[in-house]
Predict the structure of Acetate kinase.
Amino acid sequence: MTTQSTSVLVVNSGSSSIKYQLVDPVGGEAIAWGIVERIGEEVGSLKHVTQTSTTERELPVPDHGEGLRRVLSLFEAVGPDLSRANVIAVGHRVVQGGPVFDGPVLVDALVEHQIEQLSPLAPLHNPANLTGIRVGRALLPDVPHVAVFDTAFFHHLPAAAASYAIDRDVAEKHSVRRYGAHGTSHQYVSHEVAAFLGRDVEQTSTIVLHLGNGASASAVKNGHAVDTSMGLTPLEGLVMGTRSGDIDPAVTFHLMRNAGMDVDEVDDLLNRRSGLKGMTGQNDLREVHRLVEEGDAGAKVAIDVYAHRIKKYIGGYTAVLGGVDVIAFTAGVGENDDIVRARACEGLERLGIEIDLERNAGRKKEPTIISTDSSPTTVVVFPTNEELAIARLAVDVVTGGRP
Ligand code: ADP
């Protein structure tokens, strides 16, 4: 790295973990990355990876402050040297920006307070994100810290897509609307895939299918999100590793009235014991495919449901967009699972979507067109890079533009 180049430290703080990456926001490369896990447990773990070494440690990490202190000592001990990396910003992933934030912001005491106030909308995530911000600001006080919100890209969804058809006063009083999630990824992929295809994003209609352990779809018209599948929380929409996605809300009352479940048990059922995990016992699609190969009929149904739901969203968003130019598959499943991609697009030729099965075959590490040359819609596998996206947004905030 030359002395002129800059870097951004991207931090994703969870309830018991801190993931981080030191990113070159211009070249896009990860200079170093790592994860602290099992914070607060008897023995925690640290993994720190540089371009030339991997360091792993098992040791107690009582809290996030200690976790980040350990990370900074690893940077000092094995490099890269942060004082020479010209860190121009720390970018923090924040899950819920609620009705307040429509873009990334420089963190100050007011922003911290607002993130805290939004915690009822994301009780598992926002407090953990805020902890990461607080310890980060305490340990790296000389660098600007930027909060990048997962919901911001969807802040300006049209009312038709953002509103739920419930009592308006209740919705307003309790901030009930579609906020979406994975917005940083949807924004990055929809914009970068247009550039990859040599298209003007301002004149492109795109469906992004972010299929990871969490999964969401978005409809993006001329660079702006016009609909997305996640709702008030990340529970709505596609079938996920452990979440049900779309479900009749009456299932909740039914279970509470007839199965003796309380609200926390239904929450646990729908968020952590449903989706692929609930249907097959496995949340990882690789394992679900293995079960199918072993003749497990339930696993076959789970993949049918998973692909059917994606197909429904492709159809729905094609209608919302008035025709779609580009469909982009991304994240763990989207980038690696050719069966899901083929099943989701199967039979959509009359919508202008034609997959080339040979092009589709296999895992994709690089952006790859998987539609036929004659397909009116271009279907692309486009690897997401949320850390780079956060780093670039953080740079935009601190410099008012790219370095
Ligand atoms: P997260 O949502 O946790 O960021 P990822 O985007 O990394 O997740 O996706 C993780 C998921 O991707 C796994 O749970 C698994 O279902 C899927 N996945 C990863 N590799 C493969 C693969 N080779 N084939 C099929 N699915 C895969």
Q: What stands out?
A: The chain has a mean pLDDT of 96. The radius of gyration is 21 Å.
